[in-house]
Design brief:
- The protein is elongated, with a radius of gyration of 27 Å.
- The strands form two sheets. Strands 6, 7, 8, 9, 10, 11, 12 and 13 form an eight-stranded antiparallel beta sheet that branches. A five-stranded parallel beta sheet has the order 3-2-1-4-5, sandwiched between helices.
- It contains 13 helices and 13 strands.
- Helix 10 runs antiparallel to helix 11.
- The protein is α/β, with parallel strands linked by helices.
């Protein structure tokens, strides 16, 4: 009988583990699985056991590919299973290509005459996963804000970054979730970044993979009114709750789809973008909506020079600009007072109120649209199945 041995934490069992057990079992006639108990897992690897030892034993023992489960007891991170390995005397030690301790395991096999077999990490139907990814999905919030960018857009794209300059933005409610998403598709308000955060993906990596910048997932995950350093990755300079903006912001639906990757190669004046961000930064720092409005309006002038269509004047707004750089989607409008915004909301059917959003003490609570604006959204055919 050819015995195969595998070891690991198996802390969050998933399809990748099952595939590993299946492939390891196919190497012989009898599969032995070893794992460290909770106290040793913490002592050696700084990992908290998701399941207690009895539960993990029950789950592993019920998997059809596994013939025997044995505890790893050695206080050695590389070979915590050594005593179990010597006790069971397997013919094969199976590991995966990303094994951190493969050299120590090669040496153990040389000492015992066992064969080391390295298996590719895979999962059924070729979709790879990991315990870390599963944990990130569990930790992902149920509701997230979207964002408005005040100034500095494009300076979050690594190849467009200017050292010493800034990106200025704010997370906003109403919030979205995987089942409640009332904003129009192509809103320009960081929807793809929000979707990544909700799914527990690496949101910054996802956004950079689309060829755009990191500001959307950064502020959606951070929340608040934020000033970031321009650069290859998000580094926060400072933030506040954005409460000084309550009652002063609205978004206007242009009914034109926003497409940032499609226009990324256009010429634009990055020095003017940086100047606008410096002014907007002062507005956030001083919690002064009038100063912030100057930075927003400077950003809008750059957008017009780039070729975006002029936006309409709405009520007594003190500044406006397109959200993002995609020549469409929603546009941000700033008002000096809640009364001025309320009057504008009455006069324009395509204007919607938004508020600053800052998560406190880890709370993850939905902030819905008021009923009258849900009805307004329905009239404009902004439905979930449009996304």
């Amino acid at each position: 009988m050819k015995k195969v041995f595998v070891s690991g934490a198996f802390n969050v069992l998933h399809a990748g583990h099952i595939q590993f057990f299946k492939e390891a079992r196919a190497l012989g006639d009898y599969l032995i699985v070893s794992y460290p108990p909770a106290d040793l897992l913490w002592k050696l690897y700084d990992k908290k056991s998701v399941l207690d030892d009895a539960d993990k034993l029950a789950v592993l023992s019920s998997i059809s590919y596994i013939d025997e489960v044995i505890l790893s007891t050695d206080e050695d991170a590389a070979l915590s299973f050594r005593a179990a390995f010597l006790q069971t005397q397997p013919d094969i030690l199976a590991v995966t290509t990303d094994d951190l301790y493969i050299d120590a395991k090669k040496k153990l096999c040389q000492e015992t005459g066992a064969q080391l077999v390295v298996l590719e990490k895979s999962a059924p139907k070729g979709k790879s996963t990991s315990s870390t990814q599963v944990v990130e999905r569990i930790k992902a919030p149920v509701h997230v804000p979207l964002r408005v960018d005040f100034a500095g857009g494009w300076l979050d794209v690594p190849e467009r970054a200017i050292p010493g300059e800034y990106v200025v933005n704010c997370s906003v409610s109403p919030t979205v979730s995987l089942k409640e998403w009332n904003y129009r598709q192509g809103a320009g308000m960081g929807g793809s970044g929000g979707w990544s955060v909700l799914n527990g993906w690496d949101p910054v990596k996802s956004e950079l993979g689309l060829g755009v910048g990191w500001q959307d997932p950064a502020v959606i995950a951070e929340t608040g009114a934020c000033v970031w350093f321009s650069g290859p990755k998000p580094v926060l300079e400072f933030k506040n709750t954005g409460e000084f903006l309550r009652g002063c912001m609205a978004v206007y639906d242009t009914c034109i789809k926003h497409d940032t990757p499609g226009i990324a190669a256009l010429n634009r004046n990055y020095n003017k973008i940086a100047k606008a961000a410096r002014v907007a930064r002062l507005g956030i720092q001083g919690q002064d909506v009038s100063v912030l409005a100057v930075g927003v309006q400077l950003s809008y002038q750059v957008q017009l020079e780039e070729g975006m269509q002029p936006l309409p004047s709405i009520g007594d707004s003190i500044a406006h600009k397109y959200c993002g750089g995609g020549h469409g989607g929603y546009a941000l409008y700033l008002f000096e007072t809640p009364q001025a915004r309320a009057a504008a909301l009455e006069m324009n059917e395509y204007l919607y109120p938004i508020e600053p959003y800052c998560r406190t003490f880890g709370k993850d609570e939905p902030v819905p649209w008021a009923p009258e604006y849900v009805e307004r959204l329905r009239r404009h055919n902004v439905q979930k199945d449009n996304f």
